[in-house]
Amino acid sequence: MKKMKFIVASLVACVGITAQAQETKAAEPKGKAIVQVFSNFNADFSKEAESLGFELERSYLGYEYKLDGGLTVKGVMDIGKSSDVSDYQRMAYIKNAMLSWKRGNLTLNGGLISTTQFNFQEKFWGYRYVMKSFQDLYKFGSSADLGISAAYRFTDWLSADAIIVNGEGYKKIQKGTGLNYGLGATVTPVEGLQVRLYGGLNEGATAADADQWNAATFVGYKGKDFSVGAEYNYMDKAGSAQSGYSVYTSVNVSKTAAVYARWDELFAGNTASKDAAIVGAQFKLGKYVKVAPNVRMQMDRKTSKNTYEGYVSCYFGL
To answer: Using only C-alpha atoms, what is the Rg of the chain?
Structure first.
């Protein structure tokens, strides 16, 4: 029954997009290449695991094409590390294969789409090539999945979004009947100040799997030369809860240089399990290249082992 509802909703969305596109005046299609490369040079100063070397962390390769009638098609390949194979190998996945339609204040997306669980926070953090945002880093959810989403801007200060996806993420196929449902709202009470609320239910993919509940709150302010944000995230699966917060800031010291810092704390139940801190600077070398030297500290409360690392993170993107 759930699968039938999902199929019907998808067909209705596709029919609506097609009908509206045919009624609008044709515009000249425009396309752009998507090329993003994350790499770094890192050194681990921990006594237990000293290491030194270069790393190609992730590459995104794709194309986005804008058609007439507010339609956009987008395809992106994600080439990165996999936890299932040796770290010396790289795996290629389809990150996005999607169709978007924008009409006035309404935006519809379908296919292998970016999820809305932590996309807003990731963009506000602004240093994804240096370090993943909190929920992505600690695996509270996936950044992309197969399904549909809708967003609507009611006023200049209020917008809402909804999403229904498989729930397995973009690296795995759907193995059961469970779906992942999410609702979010973004409020901008004054210029620069943003508040984001999100709640989601990821149904168990099989009868043996438990449902997973997610909730997130974000507050951030972005001024002319600085930004500061804080988020609190909660996840519960079969009564086993994880939660945590992340606080980050960035300050522009010139047109081409900025400094940033972030602090994470992860809890298992009511007990702190991990702490992480990062401090660094970013330098823009022209239009397409960024270099970000940084130092990181991670503290595992369970094992009492601390790691100290130095990185020079590099970004190339069109």
So the answer is: 21
Q: Sketch the domain layout of the chain as residue ranges.
A: 2-317
pLDDT digits (tens, 9 = 90+) for 89-142: 678 899 999 999 999 999 999 999 999 999 999 999 999 999 999 999 999 999
Architecture in CATH for domain 2-317:
Beta Barrel (2.40)
Give the Cα separation of 171 and 148 in Å (integer). Answer: 17
**Other Cβ atoms within 10 Å of 198 Cβ, number:** 26
Q: Which of these, 192, 120, 189, lies nearest to 149 by C-alpha position?
A: 120
Q: Say if CB 201 and CB 178 are below 8 A apart.
A: no
Say how far apart CA 201 and CA 198 lie, in whole Å. 11
**pTM of the model as a whole:** 0.87
On whether the CB atoms of residues 91 and 81 are closer than 8 A, the answer is yes
pLDDT of 282 > 50? The answer is yes
Interatomic CA distance for residues 58 and 135, integer angstroms = 18
1 versus 248: which is more confidently predicted?
248
pLDDT greater at residue 175 or residue 91: 91
Q: What angle do CA 111, 117, 119 make, to 5 degrees?
A: 80
